[in-house]
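> Could you send the Metallophosphoesterase prediction when you get a chance?

Sure thing. Input:
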Amino acid sequence: MTADDDETLRFLCMGDNHGDVTSLERVLDGTDGEEFDFVIHVGDITNAWFDGVDEGREQLEAITPQFEALNERGELLYIWGNRDGAIGPERPFQDYDLPGTFIPEDDVITVAGETFTQDLELVEDDTILVNHYWYPELLDHFAGKAYFSGHIHTGRYKNKSLNTAFLYRTADHGADALLGAYFVVEIAPDGAWQIDFRNIGKVRKGICPRHQALGVQFVPDYWRKDCQFCYDEDDFYSEVARSALYGLGTVLEEADVEEVVEFAASSYGATPPSFESKLRSFLEERAQEK
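Output:
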């Protein structure tokens, strides 16, 4: 398929398989016979951060056939994540010749008529931003065409931003290993999105009535609640504060607390009666910690 301004763009989006082959095979099986304009992998292709660079290189060799097959489904674009060693000076896999196109960290690249970058500072109206780390403030304030990310292992979708959760979560942190999910995203010529969430293991979709302002969530299915913010309310106010500060173009040290509270309240519409007072307290406490 070829991107066209008058046609709907179709993306196959995934990330965080952490060296696992089975999850990529599940994606290939689940999309058999389908075609996409672009296939996006948001990083953590390996688990080298925990398993070592040598093991990570073996993992790359093992997943190369799956990447070749994905590249036949559409234009495959990928980035490295933190578990691929994409932090610090060494960058061990930058020389590895994976199928597909690497999206530059500090530049833009045009593939099949669409522009991609990892750098938020380079985003324009028609740019697709792909990075590994998650910027939740972009849920409400992203100016480009689409934003795809990963890393946090709890997926999220709102407006033009999608965090893809994970394809395979390892047991490195003591929790059980889990197969996760991937997404098919269609973007119409008028910018409207359609999201097809495809679970391959232990992830479920949730819309929390208390915290729906922060978007649709995709969480491990063993959670007692569908919402990460119900477990820790500070996480909710942290994201609200980040979004409001970003929207105002300021930082906490320089912001007027009442202006931030007013902006957030007007942005999120219907909120609990305690919303403004709790956000005000959160901001004041964080300001004192600075």
